[in-house]
Amino acid sequence: MELTFGTAQIHTSERLKSRPGIAKLFHKIFGYTNVGNYARFTVFKKLLRHTHSIENGKILDLGTGYGEYAISLASAYPNACVHALDIDTERIAAVKRATQKLELDNMHTHCKPIDGLRDKAFDLIFSIDVFEHIAPEKMPFQVAYDKLKPGGHFIVKIPNAIQRTLFPEKWFDEHHDWLEEEHIGQIYDLEGLKSRFRREGFIITHASYSDGWLSRFAWELAYLGKKTGLLGQLVTLPIAKLFIHADRLVHSNNWGNAIQVIGQKPLS
Q: pLDDT tens digit string along 245-264?
């Protein structure tokens, strides 16, 4: 089944929840509205092709946020057992409400660090743009390794340590201030992330760059459009999505503002 993204947004977004009728119409016309998350999901779908089949697997979304990836997988693979974990109580509560409304009986939520999770023997653990918010010495690579069954895969996608921009950086000062405070773990380039995986005992099965110039243009355009208000967001949203898909088609794997590595736990 094809993975779809953003179906839970009308249940997790405070702005959309307040007007459910308008929210459904808005979603039908414009689709998912967070360009950054939308771009990440297009990469995530491609990364899944480099893992074993997960249709009947046990899966952990590590740092689930509002559960968009976990909900997508649980919806597409009803025979899979999907776990969504985060330490943010409000977000996990929102995810739980969304899973109840969507009647996803194969999805489970956890509000705790991964080392407090009793479940183990996962076929797949993934963490999409989460580890940059964690100090390097606290990144749970080893715990994830221990929670995987032999042969299981661990996906980590994070921003590249070196970022390239198109428009003048002063246009994004507010965002840069947020990054300085939040991205305490944005220290790895691709080789550095691969080395970290190897140190923790993983076999590297995939490593790549994503988010080239076209994707960067899409993000910057959407960011500036959103700052102008709702109309600006609506005008720039479809254009940004178009550039994201174009980037996925033409991007070469020699540089990108994002990096991703898949590690496999050895069979023995």
A: 999 999 988 999 999 999 99
Angle of helix 68-76 versus helix 89-101 axis, rounded to 10: 30
Contact 88, 66 (CB under 8 A): no
pLDDT digits (tens, 9 = 90+) for 122-132: 999 999 999 99
CB 3 within 8 A of CB 80: no
Q: What are phi and psi of 190, to 5 degrees?
A: -65, -45
Whether 144 and 92 have beta carbons less than 8 Å apart is answered as no
Counting every residue written for the chain, the total comes to 268
Helix spans in the chain (H): 9-12, 14-17, 20-30, 35-48, 68-76, 89-101, 141-147, 173-182, 190-199, 213-227, 230-250
CATH number of 34-264: 3.40.50.150
Domain boundaries, the chain: 34-264
* Full-model pTM: 0.91
SS3 labels along 106-170:
CEEEEECCHHHCCCCCEEEEEEECCHHHCCHHHCCHHHHHHHEEEEEEEEEEEECCCCCCCCCHH
